[in-house]
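Long-time lurker, first post. I've been practising inverse folding by hand and with some scripts of my own, and I keep getting stuck on stretches where the structure tokens seem ambiguous. Below is the full token string for one chain I'm working on. Before anyone asks, I'm not after the true native sequence, just a reasonable design that respects the backbone. If someone could post their per-position residues I'd love to compare against what I wrote down in my notebook.
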């Protein structure tokens, strides 16, 4: 007995290479933007927001700041590659699995990050 081949589980690498060739110059700008999000977003926006604005203790505020930067970087990446990701979501199980695992792990890390407020 031979099992049927599941074509939805295979990547079409030729189409991925065409997309990367098309976006060749903007890949560097994407990398620069994501690095800026992780450095500047974490230190200048998210950490002060959690530490001073929401009065969280420093360790929890720093963890939440990094998780927030990770989410923003993920959103920037999706904005940059939305057409390809949207088409892949309709045709490929691996993209759904990766997307689901990312949000599951991200949500779990946010949930289990200690959120203790500073004593006034």
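-- Answer (accepted) --
I ran through it position by position. Result:
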């Amino acid at each position: 007995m031979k099992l049927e081949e599941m074509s939805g589980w295979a990547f079409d690498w030729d189409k991925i290479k065409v997309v990367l060739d098309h976006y060749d110059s903007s890949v560097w700008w994407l990398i620069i933007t994501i690095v800026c999000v992780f450095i500047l977003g974490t230190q200048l926006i998210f950490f002060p927001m959690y530490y001073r604005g929401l009065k969280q203790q420093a360790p929890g505020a720093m963890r939440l700041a990094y998780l927030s930067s990770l989410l923003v970087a993920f959103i920037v990446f999706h904005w940059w590659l939305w057409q390809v990701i949207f088409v892949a979501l309709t045709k490929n199980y691996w993209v759904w699995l990766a997307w689901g695992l990312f949000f599951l792990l991200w949500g779990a890390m946010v949930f289990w990050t200690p959120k203790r407020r500073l004593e006034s």
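A couple of notes from the structure itself: The two ends are 70 Å apart (CA to CA). The helical segments are 13-22, 24-53, 58-80, 82-91, 93-112. Happy to go over any region you disagree with.
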